[in-house]
Amino acid sequence: MNLYGENLAYSYCNGDPLFQGFDIVIHPGEIVGLHGYSGCGKTTLGKILAGYIQPDVGVVKLGEAPITARGFCPVQMIHQHPNTSIDPRWRLRQVLSSMRGNLAQTMEWFELDPAWLVRYPGEVSGGELQRFCVARAFDDRTRYLVADEITTMMDGLLQAKLWKRIVALAQERRIGLLVISHDHDLLAKLCDRVIQLSIPCQWSKAE
Ligand SMILES: Nc1ncnc2c1ncn2[C@@H]1O[C@H](COP(=O)(O)OP(=O)(O)OP(=O)(O)O)[C@@H](O)[C@H]1O
């Protein structure tokens, strides 16, 4: 089933719209890049596609069915900073407890040591915690993944390794990926196509 964002518009606090009449379609197993100047609304669009926030106008659908805020969302979002999406008071075992699927196998795939499950999020490195978030997103019910600048805290070698694993597992399960990044090289290497959310503003051009 395709993921559709149709005629999307959103603005915060009745301000100027970040985007209007925006359409996007992602196919199962497809890797789509999302690029645009800082502040143009890439994360916001990701949150709308993953059901975190409702668009002012438009609809997000998986096949024919609109995405709802209730229950498990088949569009999972992985955030830039893993500590913003994990309760610091939970041990990592608890963080992964609601996940459906073969946890041991997924952890092994992302090189997560089972001994770390007794630790709190603050007791693993940022890169390790991000790999927990990635593993958690590969729930058996996940059909699409929105990856928002997810490897910016890693060195080049680790980035490449993690993306190789993500892409392999996504392709195996026919999961579609939306990769949000400022990194042209990464997008060119990974993606089947890249969408530009908006043209650069004057301030960005001058920089
Ligand atoms: N909760 C919020 N309330 C009000 N404004 C917000 C909120 N979240 C984001 N914004 C604003 O909306 C705009 C778009 O933010 P968003 O994070 O979607 O952009 P982005 O393209 O992902 O940026 P970056 O590339 O820098 O991560 C920014 O100007 C931001 O300050």
TrEMBL record:
Keywords: ATP-binding, Nucleotide-binding, Transport. GO terms for biological process: transmembrane transport. Transmembrane segments: none annotated. Residues 3-205 form the ABC transporter domain. Gene3D superfamilies: P-loop containing nucleotide triphosphate hydrolases (3.40.50.300). It comes from the Bacteria. The keyword Oxidoreductase does not apply. SMART domains: AAA. Belongs to the ABC transporter superfamily. This is ABC transporter domain-containing protein.
